[in-house]
Each structure stands twice: as structure tokens, then as C-alpha cells.
Design brief:
The protein contains 19 helices and two strands. By secondary structure, the protein is mainly alpha-helical. The longest helix has about 35 residues.
Length: about 450
């Protein structure tokens, strides 16, 4: 948050702009937050489902790595169109459609029996969810001035680690259905429910909130400040004037404010941001896809203990995102707050392999590594708006996120293949650490390019 914080406007001296900003936070962020949390659970719950699906269906690491990643191939196809629809049409209608369709597809994943069915449903889930995240980012730029933007983005992206923590506690008891575990040296069997395995029930349970929230979004989300009946006239005018002032003063990097979408997508800065996001996304999704499997295989844990072992990582991601975004807004600085966490995560990820003989140390190292690999997100997604606006910015954000999600396929796929070929995750971790470090280098190079263009 900037020095002019939301709290500074409380009381009798509150300005219309301060009041509008507070109301926007209170009204919009909670709903978008919950929607993204459910989205993240529905795309990532396969990592825990694998613990029992692999036994029931006979899927190995390579199949799961491909299935986890193939979601992002479908996701990529509608990223740019989705962001443009939010910019030009309606965030409310587009996001509602997305949520209802992905909820239906997520539930249907419970029906898969073969690898190809699994791949198809994951691809279809990605296609259904495509456009939600970049659309949400574009949507927040319609409401929050630059000084609030990293914090608003952080309040969106922290939904991911919170969702993972909640998912672990809800999903693990469900996954025990139709399984036999050794708990305190006693064999405990949980019978099936309605003839279904636990992983099947889990997919259905988490799909229901998506459909319900899709209907809530349709009736409760407001597209732009001009349509907000819950803002007073002076608040609405002040917020729209502030956003218009920022658009009119946009001149950094020497890029025209109304650059065409085609030129924006070919801009060197946009291409470098896309490459960086691809590399870092490969790293963190590769780890997230296999973290439960790694703990289970390294330390022979049951499902409950695997859940407890992964929770510190999600808590660390949450803290990292909040601290980095708060510091970025407070200092008004984006570049260092983007590349430094990435370098941090890349370095600690290598150390994780050294601690694999020690259970507690492995938990700590995973948590510290993922803290770095995920906390860059909010300041990173504030970077495109430094030099683009309007349709160009919306398209660029969609494009950057689309390319990043190819990394969501590449990371899990590579780690699964390397694990199958070598019987170990060691070389896979080296690969993911290198991709993360390369992402940090891309951001450093772009910062130099940005500063030179400004100086020129």
C-alpha cells in the first residue's frame, strides 16, 4: 500500500476518493477472492487426488504429470479473448459463464477411467476456466488506482494458498473413503459412499461451489464504477476521475497509450514478461503438482500426514505474498519485489534436495522455496500497466498469462517424465531451479531496458 493508505481517509476528513476506494475493497475483493479460491482448488486438487487415484486407476507419475499440465493447454486458448471480453464487454457475465462451466466439468472428472479420458477432462477444465485470472486482473484495473493495484492483486492471489490450506483439511477426510490406512499401527478401512471412491466424491464436492458462485457473480458483481449504485455520486465521480487521470498521464517506456493490440503483443517488454512468467510458472507448478507424492514417497507417510506436511508451504506462500505486495505498494517499487523472491526460491529449491533425509528440514525448505516462487505475483502483474493501457494492456495481460500457463504444463510434465526415467526427483529439481533462476534474469534485463527507455 502507498503512503496514502486507505486508513488515512477515515473519519471526518475522508475524501470522496478515499471512501470510494474503501467501498471498492469491501464490496468487490471478497467475492473475486472466493471465486479465485474455488478456481484454484478445482485445478489443483488433482495433486492430492493422485494419492488414491493412482492405486484405483493404475496411473503413474508420467500420466499424472501430463494430466496436471494438460489443463494449461486448454487454458491457454481463451486467455487473450477472455481478457479482452472483460475489457470491452462485461466481467460479470463472462466470469459467471466461466465458473458455471468449469464447475460442471470438474464434477465430470469423477467419471474418468483411462489416461486419455483423464487428459481430455483436464484439457476441458482448462478450456472452461480460461480467461478467469487475467480477466480478474483486468477487472481490478477498472476499479483500483495504481497506488492500490499491487495490494488489490495480492488480495486476489493470496486466495491460492488459502484455498490450498482449506482444500487439504476438507479433501483429506474425503480421500480416505474406500481406502485402508495404517494409523497408530492399526489397519483402518473406510467403506465407499454411494459406490464411489473418495477421489470421485472430492471432485464433485468442490465443483458445487463453482456453480453457485457463478450465479452469485452474475447478480452481485459490478462491471465499472459508473454502474455502481452502492457509491455516492461524489465518490463515483472522484474514482472515475482518478482512473481517467492515470490513463491520460501514461507515457512511460515511450509506448503510446492506445497502442494497437497487435503491436502490444509484439512489444519486447511484453514478450520478455511472458517468457519470465512461463519459466517461473514451470517451476512452482512442477513442485506443487508433486509435493504430496514427494512427501509420501520420501517418508512413507499416510494421507493425513502428507496433508500436514504440505500445510506449512501454503502458509509460507500466503505470508510471502502479503509481505511482498505490501512492501511493493509502500515503496512504490515493482522490479526488485518481482525478481528477488524468484532468485530466493530458485536457490532454496536446490537446497531442498540436500534435506530429503530429514523430514522436518524438508518441510521447512519446501516452505521457504515456495515462498519465493509464488510471492512475486502481485508486483509482477502490476508491471504491464506501467507502459500499456486499455485494450493493449488487457490483451498483453491475457497473453502473458497464457504463455505462463504453458509453463503450467511444462513443469509438471517434465518433472513427471524425469522422475519416471530416473526413479528420482533430483534432476527434476535441478531443472526447475534453473528455470526459476532464468525467470529472474529476464526481469532484471527488462528492468534495464525499461530504465533506458525512460531515460531516453
Amino acid at each position: 500500500m502507498s503512503a496514502t493508505s486507505l486508513e488515512s481517509g477515515r473519519g471526518a476528513a475522508s475524501t470522496p476518493l478515499d471512501r470510494a476506494r474503501r467501498k471498492a475493497y469491501a464490496r468487490l475483493i471478497p467475492l473475486v477472492f472466493v471465486c479465485y479460491a474455488i478456481a484454484y482448488i478445482d485445478r489443483a486438487n488433482v495433486a492430492f487426488a493422485k494419492l488414491t487415484m493412482s492405486k484405483d486407476l493404475g496411473f503413474d507419475d508420467a500420466i499424472f504429470g501430463t494430466g496436471f499440465g494438460i489443463f494449461f493447454l486448454g487454458y491457454v486458448l481463451l486467455e487473450v479473448p477472455g481478457a479482452l471480453l472483460v475489457e470491452r464487454w462485461s466481467a460479470r457475465k463472462w466470469m459467471s459463464r466461466i465458473m458455471i462451466s468449469w464447475g460442471i466439468v470438474a464434477a465430470c472428472t469423477a467419471l474418468v477411467k483411462t489416461p486419455h479420458q483423464f487428459y481430455f477432462m483436464r484439457f476441458l477444465l482448462g478450456l472452461s476456466e480460461a480467461g478467469f485470472f487475467p480477466g480478474a486482473i483486468v477487472y481490478l484495473t477498472h476499479w483500483f488506482p495504481a497506488r492500490d493495484r499491487a495490494r488489490a492483486l495480492a488480495l486476489l492471489v493470496i486466495a491460492a494458498p488459502i484455498a490450498q490450506m482449506v482444500s487439504v483439511r476438507v479433501s483429506v477426510p474425503i480421500l480416505r473413503i474406500d481406502t485402508t490406512e495404517i494409523i497408530d499401527h492399526v489397519s483402518v478401512t473406510t467403506p465407499p459412499v454411494f459406490g464411489m471412491h473418495g477421489w470421485q466424491i472430492m471432485y464433485v464436492v468442490w465443483a458445487i461451489p463453482a456453480v453457485i458462485l457463478g450465479l452469485v457473480v452474475l447478480f452481485k458483481l459490478t462491471d465499472r464504477p459508473a454502474q455502481a449504485r452502492w457509491l455516492a455520486d461524489d465518490e463515483r465521480d472522484a474514482l472515475e476521475a482518478e482512473l481517467a487521470r492515470e490513463r491520460s498521464s501514461l507515457s512511460t517506456l515511450g509506448v503510446a497509450q492506445h497502442m494497437s493490440l497487435g503491436k502490444a503483443l509484439l512489444n519486447p517488454a511484453v514478450l520478455l514478461l511472458a517468457l519470465a512468467n512461463f519459466l517461473i510458472t514451470s517451476a512452482h507448478y512442477g513442485i506443487e503438482a508433486f509435493q504430496p507424492t514427494i512427501f509420501k514417497s520420501w517418508f512413507d507417510l499416510n494421507i493425513s500426514k502428507v496433508a500436514w506436511a504440505t500445510l506449512p508451504s501454503f502458509g509460507a506462500i500466503l505470508v510471502g505474498m502479503l509481505v511482498v505486495s505490501w512492501s511493493s505498494d509502500r515503496r512504490g517499487e515493482r522490479w526488485f519485489h518481482t525478481f528477488m523472491p524468484i532468485f530466493w526460491g530458485a536457490a532454496v529449491l536446490l537446497l531442498t534436495m540436500l534435506g530429503r533425509a530429514n523430514y522436518a528440514l524438508t518441510i521447512v525448505l519446501f516452505a521457504v522455496a515456495l515462498l519465493g516462487l509464488r510471492s512475486y505475483v502481485a508486483p509482477f502483474y502490476a508491471l504491464p500497466k506501467l507502459f500499456l493501457d486499455g485494450t493493449a494492456a488487457a490483451g498483453a495481460i491475457g497473453f502473458i498469462n497464457a504463455i505462463a500457463n504453458l509453463g503450467g504444463f511444462a513443469g509438471p510434465w517434465a518433472l513427471g517424465r524425469i522422475s519416471k526415467a530416473t526413479g528420482s526427483f533430483v534432476l527434476g529439481f535441478v531443472y526447475l531451479s534453473a528455470t526459476a533462476a532464468a525467470a529472474g534474469v529476464c526481469i532484471v534485463v527488462l528492468r534495464v531496458y525499461y530504465n533506458r527507455r525512460r531515460a531516453a
